Amino acid sequence: MSTSSAESLTRKFTIYFTSIALMVGVIIYGLSLSMLYWLEDEVNTRLLYAASVTAVSDFNAGAPSPLTMTNSITAYNDLSQLPEQYQGLADLPSGFLNEMTNASEQGDIFVYRTDYVAMQSHHPLLLVMNAETAELTENEWRRISLFVFGITSTLFLLFGYALIKLTKRMIQPISQLSDQLHNGQPQQRFQVPDGAVQEFHHLTASLNSYQAQIAQLIEQEHTFSRYASHELRTPLTIIHGASHLLQHDQSPDFQQRQQQRIIKAAADMQNTVDALLSLVKQESRQSEPQPQRKLTQAEMETLISTVSELASKKAVSIELNMQSQPQITPPEAVLRMLISNLINNAINASDGGKIIVTVSDDYIDVVDQGRGLTESEIHQQGHGLGLLIVNALCQRYGWEFDLADAKTGGCIARLRFNTNAIS
Description:
Order of helices and strands: HEEEEEHHHHEHHEEHEEHHEE
Shape: rod-shaped
Number of domains: 3
Radius of gyration: 51 Å
């Protein structure tokens, strides 16, 4: 596994591009000097070629050979008059125009060898230019080299600075996100600089979304654990207490009542276990449609009877309005947990009055006349421990759960079989 960090990646990028920039700088420096050398020679040869026209005109006018045209150019139309150091130039072919290195004791020279016609006869023409006087001196070349080197170095430094800034700007969001992930503070929102590219902002938004989902799932897990513990401990306590009482009273009526309590508590525990297992069970064929069944009035009355004792203690009456017998998917244990949670929450939020349970083809409503919703309950974070279980069960079976204030007071809890809104 690689152990490179964002900082080391920045250094690698810097070294890599610095090497490229240095190589490019050396190439540019070499090409610049080479171009200047070529340009200098090209100017001198063209100057020598242009001087040949003047030399021919002067010789036709009777000028003697050798003809001194400038302090650096000398023309000859009689090769026998060439100085001893230039004797080898007589053998050059006509049309030769170039610089010759170490051709004389005076140093490098430019030579142009040609012919011209005068008085109907051909005459040779040789122009010699001293390169030392025509070319730039060593000091001048040194100054030019320093100037080119300075420009190249400045460009190199500017390129390196821009490269480092660009690399840091590219790596900074990654480093910042890495530090935030490493710190791992709860409820921390990930952030990147405003100048970061759009993809980093999308990544940050996704991380924040995933973190919120993880926090919600953790909270749901804690709530689920508390709720499951409460739902399972209550019947166990009843069974344990009734079993203990059976040992102290042997009267038939008393024992029968305790047995009924044990049977009811065991049935409640069984329903709770079935509902929770239905929630966490991994179906082997999730893509296949689940079988539906009819929700009958008798089943709803049985479900309501399980919470009637709590309702009577708070002077709350429960009314069933069975408008239809819809086809539903959840089994009886799951439906019992859904309805009992909603009715229990409605009872706990009421100080009397009436709770109306309405069953239609599209939804099941539980309407109370209680205190209404608090701020946390509006965001579905309160109103009983079983609310998250209700949401999870609805998602499991493709239902939707809504909780809203009723216009006449209290609130409406709705289990929707489709997407109809609360009116």
